[in-house]
Amino acid sequence: MDPCVFCRIVAGTEPAEIIHSDDASVAFLDITQATEGHTLVVPRRHRTDLTDIAPEEAASVMSAAVRVSHRLRERLRAPGINLWHASGETAWQSVFHFHVHVVPRYTPTDLVPPWSGPEGSVESLRALGAKLR
């Protein structure tokens, strides 16, 4: 049996509630449901994370995430959507098959943003910007 739960879902050997499927990707309801309709979109081929997926394949996953977002807004009347991706254990990735979380939002407080710390100044970003250019 394939050790990757998402590969098993794509293959149809692991139960999941699939809500979208195309040649490149599969979208299914997340078993943990951060909010009602929380969906994961994965590539059909096993890719570990952002370092292991080609831009074109990632674009196909994002295209499916957009389609799923429209469906969640329309059918669940979600006024907002968050997209979330984590690459690597340090970034809280727990299943090592590339995936995008599509999380419908119903109120501004139904989730707490992890990046809600104090805002810095633009000047404080100059050295970092230079390092990344």
Structure description:
With 133 residues, the chain is α+β, with helices and mostly antiparallel strands. The protein has one domain (5-108): HIT-like (HIT family, subunit A), CATH 3.30.428.10. It contains 3 helices and 5 strands, in the order αβββαββα. The chain has helices at residues 5-11, 55-76, 126-132, and strands at residues 18-21, 25-29, 39-43, 80-84, 100-105. Strands 1-2-3-5-4 form a 5-stranded antiparallel sheet, covered by helices on one side. A hairpin with a 3-residue loop joins strand 1 and strand 2 (25-29). It is globular, with a radius of gyration of 17 Å. 21% of the residues are buried.
Short account of what is shown:
One of its GO terms (biological process) is nucleotide metabolic process. The chain has 133 residues and is α+β, with helices and mostly antiparallel strands. The chain is 27% helix and 19% strand.
